[in-house]
Specification:
heterodimer; A: alpha+beta; Immunoglobulin-like; B: Rossmann fold; 6-stranded mixed beta sheet; about 35% helix; M1 family aminopeptidase (chain A); protease (chain A); aminopeptidase activity (chain A); transmembrane helix (chain A)
Chain lengths: ~1200, ~290
């Protein structure tokens, strides 16, 4: 019997075209991942697209996205019988329940497994495709295609399949099967949030039903080499536990459904019919003929009736309520985690709460729109009421419009509820921050977007006239518009129809200059939606005709209804008008640039001007700037005038000048030299001008370059990035000069070839016909030694500036304020720096409130003025920032040497870009970085303190010591600033905080290296690799001061700084610093310098066993078995073991004083000392005075160790009293 | 008001020819449309009810062109389809009120009266507050009738309205129909001959998409009057009888087949002349139609 049903199911599945269609989709998906650039799962060009790690990722992602296919296959075997009314026939045959269910389930399971095997087939075909470059492919490993097929795809299909199958058995409703899919998807999303968090990995892995989190933790810190060669192990680690757990959960759910299921009609339909009316009411009189009024206004009245009924219909449906509730729970869950984040939390300002709410409920809104668009369009037909309904006397546009309005109403209600959730979160955390007006504006924006999506979803359902095809098409649409648009080359807002317009709201600047594009683009979408609605209304199915020809014929008939054609014309004109306005602004007023155009332009500039790379050029020695800002004028704009003084510091005369200027089309550039010169070439695309001087500039001579740059905002530009946050390098002037909160850099003038403008990424270079290039000049390259790291065209310069702005704004630039006045209704500021400085210029202007303090060096000298310029709303952390500066100034002055200025200023700027950067005596700080950190809970990490001191550190490391433009520059500047901040934190934070903080550094370094795009370098040769110069640098210096002593290391740094202060031509490099550190390091620890700075060295330390026995004297014998291994990694992470003769910290601890992970120690150290280990395995014995709870090797994880969580163990009591042994 | 159907043809996408050159003139009053399952009755009715497009032909109702002026048709239409469902979670009273509103009865008081009247007429008054999901087939059918009769329809199209009704309900409904049928066009499709015989002054028989007979029942019967004979026979002899004679129908009476036969010439030999009925015409026409194809 079972075999019969099983075979029938198989035959059914394998004769269905859909089975092969799904199979084909997966083949294609996998094939594309191997053959198309942006579709691969390798993440780094150094990782092969067919590496085991990338393939595993492919199988996980495909099977997660494929969940809807699993639902379609495994949710339907029983539904099929119900739907077709077969149950009566089938269930009355003598089948048994086990045979029936098992046959159907296993047959469908085999089918879905077959479908998923398409991933392997497609991937294999992709690897064999002749046009894929050999360099992108590694060897074909059959196990890498089969392992994840079974371990990832098949297990996921089994789990999800059990859930869907059981969901139908339990509820006998296809909608519930859908909901099951959504719940799974939410679970998956939740687990993804978990994986972003860095602690409690094990628990988080288990919560991901699809195993991706487990795989990512297992392969978390894999190097490039490992990702290329190592097979993901499905039989160990987190994965095996995860897979077994969820396969088990799936089977349990299936068992539950199985137990509940009875062979019979679905309960809902088997409701007992009402017995015929008991009493016959006597008929009173004849039939009533009620007058019908078909006058004006009936349509509107009927519309209202229909909308009301359908709105209530959706809102009362329990699947809708479940979805809405899930959405709320999801938002609250995210809020909870946001405010538990060990990496720091922010104040619940309204825009952040709105972002939290919108980001997390959008998914649910999309699902609700998709599903309920289908339910509404099919409402009459699903209940077989359509013949009655369609013959009623209402206009044909009525049903579609009523459904649209009902769906919009539902979404409006949902959005309101979600906003209510947002308000509740704010009230709970900081009630004063609720901004009702901002909620209203955000509601409007959300609602417009949702309206457009509702119109699209209903149009799709109507036109394709098949509910499930409609759902699928909507998913394709979402995928294209929200995820793949940029990959597919659809960059323009006009092409991403219905996608939300990206924007950034700033507390300082409000919606600011983004109001215009928001209005125009949303207007375009709305007009398009209107047109779509009208066109769809023509195709609305009324009656029994569903053939395309008849529908078109009917559409023609409806088109002749009065009013239809004018409405179509009007909406088309509106759409054209709004679209045209967008196009006019983005493409005609401004230059429309795609990433590919920009790349091509960069490549072209390199081809044209690279030949001038070694051309001797004069250096900037003085900048005299007049900057006039018009932040609230119409149009907004600025004018920057002034002079650069350029001196020939070379030994030969210079006759050719290569000048770079800002190539933005909205900026007019006027350049004048103070001596006769011929313009050889002017290239406005690249922003390059080449001069031939009539009279060469003799060695030691100077000339002045006069400039006059005028920027006027012209309309609005297109947004290339979908996030609304822009890359600072390509950020357009319109985002820099804003109504409140301008942040301009220097005038954009540079002298001499700029290697920094070259394409860096090897893949991008190859695409554009360029050869790979070295990222940075090598450590001792003489040309690089003569250039400053971040301003190759200038050494220390004199700087003065006059800045003018609106009368209610304050404008600031590096230097000291000499004079302030008002003239012609504008406010002027005159700044001058009284000593040479790096040519790093910023000009900021905003309506600031200022917090002033001062710091007095106890060793004497003038006081240092501390000034924090901030938005009046953001005074939460201003005092803390000032305190950080005071503490930093004290520590740095004492440890490294004097602060060079009499003033330090922090300036807030809008969050169009989120960073902080240290200019001379001036630190611009994004409003999102520090100003709104929530420091009220003292147990949370204090990043404000840390970042403030990191930036302050740059006044020493970056402004007093300026690195040469060679390898290792990042270490001299960033690692030392990071170290400085870490040291202030060390004296400020609790040890637990500090450990939490250092864990973040380690984690970021280890994650960063798996994404390396070229070569990982040792610290002292770092090449613009943030994961090395910030995080490894921080780790290394912190460990070094722990090994050789804080004073020793600081002494070396101080000596180095003393020697290198303001040193230029040649600028110092890391080798210079290393000689000082080497001197300060005892011979026994010299090996550390090689490990930490000159090589990539990692430890594999593990505490194998930890046991203790009580001694008669009340003390305890402790025995620890330690495995220790040291490895060197090459640039791709291939490791070789090196001999061990290293001092490792070993500790025994009392019970944790506060809550801690198993692998962290928070207890009192009973023993803590560095012990030299030489063997792979060592057993150590200690005697301690108190009962030990935990023990560990390198227990605070100061060394770089990928498997840090096996360093610490709970100590176990051993029953047998061992013989007392010697104490070490 | 007169409904004129001219040369209506319809072929479905799957090749089934539902209507072939159908022409009918339907005056005020009850009009019976008689035909077996699949004859094209429902197709014809749906086309008149604006729910389906013909391939060719025309329909006019008074001065209304049914095929293009659909909105005007719907304003005077009451339609009961052969099969329909109802929202399971709503009560009859509420749904009927909702439909009444959509039918243009905007006055709330009038709507209430209309709903009450119809619920009583269709004998659903006692169950008016029950959810429609719990209604039996007969109750659902009566509810559909109530919807069709809402307002003041001039054209009432009821497709197999008596299917599923018990005899009492059937009679009640037919009374109701004939009451309003005096002043409006009522088209009643059925495959039950008595429905037509009892009620309809005009009728048509439709088979395989074609009108095979039309007129008043008496006219239609007239063409075979005096040509119908009946006889009793044995089951075993049936086949032989069919081969020799044009058998209209055979029924079992007390377990023995009673056969009615059509013959242009007088028959003896155990045959007795019989009073021709509409049913005889119906079966005769169908049989002829089948033979001709």
């Amino acid at each position: 019997m079972f075999l019969h049903i099983f075979r029938f199911e198989l035959r059914y599945r394998f004769t269905q075209p859909s089975t092969y269609l799904f199979f084909g989709v997966f083949v294609l998906f996998a094939f594309l991942s191997q053959t198309v650039d942006d579709f691969g799962f390798n993440g780094s060009p150094k990782v092969h697209v067919n590496s085991p790690d990338a393939l595993a990722q492919l199988f996980f992602m495909a099977s997660i996205l494929g969940m809807f296919v699993t639902a379609a296959v495994l949710g339907t075997p029983i539904y099929r019988d119900d739907k077709d009314g077969m149950t009566g026939l089938v269930y009355t045959t003598p089948i048994t329940k086990p045979a029936y269910l098992a046959g159907r389930f296993l047959g469908s399971l085999l089918a879905i497994w077959f479908i998923y095997s398409g991933i392997s087939v497609g991937a294999l075909l992709g690897m064999l495709a002749p046009w894929v470059e050999a360099s992108k492919l590694g060897p074909i490993m059959p196990l890498a295609l089969l392992g994840p097929l079974v371990g990832a795809a098949w297990v996921n299909a089994l789990f999800a399949g059990c859930v869907f199958f059981a969901a139908y058995l339990l509820f006998r409703s296809p909608l519930v099967v859908y909901l099951g899919g959504i719940v799974l998807f939410v679970l998956y999303q939740v687990s993804r949030i978990f994986t972003e968090s860095i602690s409690s990995d094990h628990l988080f892995c288990l919560t991901d039903p699809f195993g991706l989190a487990a795989k990512n933790i297992d392969a978390n810190y894999w190097t490039i080499a490992e990702r290329n060669t190592r097979l993901v192990n499905f039989f160990g680690g987190e994965l095996i536990q995860n897979r077994l757990l969820w396969a088990g959960v799936g089977l349990s759910i299936l068992a539950l459904g199985w137990a509940f299921f009875r062979l019979g009609q679905p309960r809902t339909r088997a409701r007992k019919p009402q017995s015929e009316a008991e009493t016959v009411t006597p008929t009173t009189g004849g039939l009533r003929r009620s007058p019908q009024e078909f006058g004006a206004g009936l349509g509107r009245w009927q519309l209202w009736q229909l909308v009301k009924v359908q709105f209530m219909n959706v809102v009362r449906a329990w699947p809708f309520r479940v979805l809405a509730l899930l959405g709320i729970i999801f938002v609250l869950f995210n809020a909870y985690y946001t405010y538990q984040d060990p990496r720091g939390i922010q104040m619940p300002v309204t825009y952040l709460i709105l972002k939290l709410v919108n980001d997390n409920y959008t998914l649910f809104a999309l699902i609700i729109i998709t599903i309920y668009a289908g339910e509404l369009v099919w409402r009459e037909r699903d209940t077989h009421l359509q013949l009655v309904f369609d013959a009623l006397p209402f206009s044909t546009w009525l049903p579609f419009l009523s459904k649209l309005l009902a769906l919009m109403g539902v979404l409006a209600l949902l959005t309101l509820v979600m906003d209510g959730v947002g308000v509740a979160i704010q009230l709970y955390r900081a009630s004063a921050l609720v901004e009702p007006l901002l909620y209203v504006k955000d509601f409007a924006l959300q609602f417009v977007n949702l309206t457009v999506l509702c119109a699209i979803a209903l149009a799709v359902q109507t036109v394709v006239n098949n509910k499930y095809v409609g759902h699928a098409l909507m998913m394709v649409y979402y995928g294209v518009v929200f995820l793949l648009a940029d990959v597919l080359g659809l960059h323009h807002a006009l092409l991403k129809f219905g996608a939300a317009v990206p924007y950034t709201y700033s507390d300082m600047n409000g919606y600011g200059h983004l109001v215009a594009p928001l209005l125009a683009i949303n207007g375009y979408y709305l007009a398009g939606a209107l047109l779509l609605v009208l066109l769809t209304g023509l195709l609305w199915v009324r009656g029994t005709e569903t053939g395309l020809r008849t529908r078109l014929h009917l559409a023609g008939q409806r088109l002749r209804t009065p009013g239809v054609r004018p409405a179509l014309l009007a909406s088309a004109l509106l759409m054209l008008g709004a679209g045209g306005w967008v196009f006019y602004n983005a493409n005609i007023l401004n230059e429309y640039l795609t990433p590919k155009t920009l790349e091509a332009r960069q490549a072209e500039a390199e081809r044209r001007y690279k030949r001038y790379e070694n051309l001797p050029q004069p250096k900037i020695t003085a900048i005299d700037l007049v900057a006039d800002l018009y932040p609230t004028a119409s149009p907004r704009g600025y004018r920057m005038r002034g002079t650069y003084t350029l001196r020939n510091k070379e030994s030969q005369a210079i006759d050719t000048l290569l000048i770079y200027y800002d190539n933005s089309r909205s900026i007019s550039n006027k350049l004048v030299l103070d001596r006769p010169a011929q313009v050889l070439r002017d290239d406005p695309d690249a922003g390059v001008r080449l001069y031939r001087l009539r009279q060469p500039l003799a060695a030691g001579d100077s000339l002045t370059l006069q400039f006059d740059m005028d920027y006027r905002a012209r309309g609005f530009t297109s947004r290339l990035k979908g996030t609304g946050v822009f890359d600072w390098a390509t950020i357009s002037p319109e985002d820099r000069l804003t109504a409140n909160g301008s942040f301009l850099n220097d005038p954009g003038l540079h002298v001499g070839y700029l290697p920094a403008t070259e394409l860096e990424d090897d893949e991008a270079r190859q695409r554009n016909g360029l050869k790979p290039k070295a990222r940075v000049l090598s450590l001792n390259e003489p040309r690089g030694r003569m250039q400053a790291d971040f301003s190759p065209d200038g050494d220390y310069v004199r700087y003065q500036a006059t800045v003018s702005t609106d009368p209610d704004q304050v404008a600031i630039t590096p230097g000291y304020l000499e004079k302030e006045w008002t003239e012609h209704g504008r406010r002027y500021f005159r700044y001058r720096m009284d000593q040479p400085m790096m040519p790093m210029v910023s000009v900021l202007s905003a309506r600031y409130q200022v917090h002033r303090e001062s710091w007095q060096n106890p060793a004497g000298g003038p006081p240092v003025a501390i000034e924090i310029y901030h938005d009046p709303k953001h005074n939460y952390n201003v005092r803390r920032m000032a305190e950080a500066l005071r503490k930093g100034l004290a520590y740095y002055t004492q440890a490294f040497g004097p602060y060079q200025y009499r003033q330090i200023r922090i300036l807030e700027f809008p969050r169009y870009k989120s960073f902080a950067q240290s200019f001379p005596n001036t630190v611009p700080f994004a409003e999102s970085a520090g100003f709104i950190d929530d420091l009220r809970d003292k147990t949370k990490p204090d990043l404000t303190f840390f970042i403030t001191n990191h930036e302050l550190g740059h006044q020493w490391w970056g402004h007093q010591v300026v690195s040469a433009n060679v390898q290792g520059a990042g270490m001299l500047v960033e690692s030392l600033a990071e170290y400085s901040a870490i040291m202030t934190a060390k004296h400020e934070f609790t040890p637990a905080h500090m450990q939490q903080f250092m864990r973040r550094e380690l984690d970021r370094y280890l994650r960063g290296r798996r994404q390396e795009r070229q070569k990982e370098r040792p610290l002292m040769l770092v090449e613009h690799q943030p994961y090395i110069h910030y995080y490894k640098g921080g780790m290394v210096f912190y460990a070094l001061q722990d090994y050789i002593g804080e004073d020793k290391l600081n002494g070396a740094l101080k000596a180095f700084l003393n020697k290198s202060r303001y040193q230029h031509r040649p600028y110092p490099n890391t080798a210079d610093l290393m000689s000082y550190i080497r001197q300060a390091t005892p011979d026994s620890l010299q090996y550390l310098l090689r490990d930490m700075f000159e090589t990539i060295t990692l430890y594999k330390n593990e505490l194998k066993t930890a046991s203790y026995t009580p001694r008669p004297d009340g003390r305890y014998d402790v025995s620890l078995t330690i495995k220790a291994e040291k490895v060197r990694a090459d640039s791709l992470g291939n490791e070789t073991t090196v001999p061990l003769a290293d001092y490792l910290e070993v500790g025994v601890f009392g019970p944790d004083q506060e809550q801690a992970e198993a692998w962290d120690v928070r207890g009192k150290p009973l023993v803590l000392r560095k012990i030299k280990l030489t063997q792979p395995e060592t057993t150590l014995h200690f005697v301690v005075n108190e009962k030990p709870a935990k023990a560990g090797v390198d227990p605070y994880q100061k060394l770089i160790d990928r498997y840090y969580y096996d360093n610490v163990k709970y100590a176990e009591q051993k029953q047998l009293a061992a013989k007392p042994v010697a104490v070490r | 008001m007169e409904l004129r159907i001219r040369n209506l043809s319809k072929t479905y996408a799957n090749g089934v020819r539902a209507l072939r050159d159908v022409s009918l003139t339907i005056p005020n009053g009850m009009f019976g449309l008689l035909g077996p399952n699949g004859a094209g009755k429902s197709s014809l009715m749906r086309t008149i009810a604006t729910l389906q497009e013909p391939d060719s032909g025309s329909i006019t109702l008074g001065d209304i062109d049914v095929l293009t002026e659909k909105d005007r048709v719907r304003q005077v239409l009451g339609y009961l389809p052969q099969e329909f469902g109802l929202y399971p979670g709503i009560s009859a009273e509420v749904l009927l009120d909702y439909f009444a509103g959509l039918k243009g009865i905007r006055d709330a008081r009038e709507r209430k009266l209309a709903v009450e009247s119809l619920l009583q007429q269709t004998n659903l008054w006692a169950a008016r507050k029950k959810a429609l999901g719990g209604y039996s087939g007969g109750m659902r059918q009566r509810f559909g009738i109530a919807v069709a009769l809402l307002g003041a329809p001039q054209l009432i199209i009821v497709d197999e309205p008596t299917a599923g009704l018990d005899p009492t309900e059937r009679n009640r409904f037919l009374d109701l129909l004939s009451e309003i049928g005096e002043n409006v066009v009522v088209i009643l499709s059925t495959h039950i001959v008595e429905d037509v015989t009892e009620l309809c002054p005009h009728m048509a028989i439709i088979a395989q998409g074609e009108v095979v007979a039309t007129g008043s029942p008496t006219d239609v019967i007239g063409e075979i009057r005096g040509k119908v004979y009946r006889t009793k026979t044995e089951k075993a002899a049936l086949a032989q009888l069919r081969a020799q004679h044009e058998v209209i129908s055979s029924k079992l009476v007390a377990g023995q087949p009673v056969v009615r036969v059509f013959s242009e010439t007088a028959l003896n030999d155990g045959f007795q002349p019989a009073e021709a009925t509409l049913e005889d015409v119906y079966f005769h026409r169908l049989a002829r139609k089948e033979r001709v194809g």
